[in-house]
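Quick one, T. Sequence first:
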Amino acid sequence: MYHLTRHKYWFFLVSGIIIVPGLLALIFWHLNLGIDFTKGDSISLRFAQRGVTTSEIASAFADSKQRAQDVQVYAATDSKGSIPAANYAFIQFDRPIGKQEEATVLARLADAKYKLPPVHKDHTMYTIPSVNGSSETALMVVYFDDKVTAAGITAALQNLPNTDAAPVTTTNPEATTPPSAAASATTAATASATAGATPGATATATATPTPAPSGQTFPVKVSKVDLGANPQTFQVNTQTFLNGAPLDNIVAGLGAKYGPVYVQSVDEVGPSVATETAYNAFFAVLAASLFILLYIGYAFRKVGSIRRSLRFGASAIIALLHDVLVVLGLWAIFGELFNFKVDTIFLTAVLTVIGFSVHDTIVVFDRIRENLSRRTSETFETIVDASLIQTMSRSLNTSLTVILTLAALTLFGGDSIREFTLALLIGIASGTYSSIFNASMILVVWEKKEYRHWFGNWFGMVKDPVKPGAQAQRRQLAGTRA
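Structure tokens:
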């Protein structure tokens, strides 16, 4: 039988070589925390056409001095669930439009004489800023209950009435104050304050003027209708708040380069939410470790004593902490080199790794428990060696099937799940190693109290470094010589 326990310190050395660089990265580089643990915007973008990549979107944010921390891709959904991309229509206008014009467009599309399916508004960009000297435009995104044609939509929107002025805030569809009205109100307020001011007196504003529509209208027509072809939503997470003009300009630039695009939603993650998420993540890992310790301590209560059973549990906890440190350390390195982030999805991967690591460790420990009751005449090291040999093929085969699956998902599964599957792949590979070569070896060191000799007699832990048998032999030899 091969004695693995004789090489336990070599196994510990391998773990140290893997963990130490990661610990240094954690100390000096720290983890690249995602929006879940910091603050910022989570922006969902939807394009009409295919062919847009996450790297191109990230570059567009970078060009605008707004770093996109990560860009993920999801299947497009909305409040009514998944709607075929072809049912969406991206209606572009040759100038900004207002709320009245928006209502007119929806009424035209719903008019029975045009024989279009029932229509629903999804989003309206009342004003799209000019890009590269082009004029400002507008975009309406609607979806139908069935497929439509661009020609049918264009026919329904011929000869539109003049449009009213666009709302002031282009990223907020509910804003209704036209720019001209806002300007008129500001001018009126200023003039009133000036007229009321006399030498020796101070004009005091007692009320904010309510802007009134200017009544000015502008000719408008549909410049193009695109039917949806891209069934994906791109989620851009930033660590800055972009809602407003900066986001408008980024979206306008993307639209000029890649075709019609709009902001489906903007979710802000504030500092308080991020802090709460971080605390919850820490206590989730702590609670999982505590329950694992208590469970193993109870499950192995028949190995001799409660102290010994808790020793099994503590060895399993140390092994799973090894796996967590491996993943966290590598993620600190990857975060610095490849902008890998730590978010709630990563936390899910870490908790999964903990569960898998403990599963493998319990398989080995359970066989040790069985052999302790059967092979009472053998030493503890021999029993551990036999248990490892008996369970190693099962552990390796089980882990290998999972590792091969995760490797395939990491290579071919797409950008949106790559970081998640890679974290699982690293953690489960580490968990397989630690269950076989760390957890059981820690148990042997603990059982034989070898840790007492690690630092010599510096702390007074070793009363006599000479073994009792050797000490007796020395005394007997000394008496004979005398």
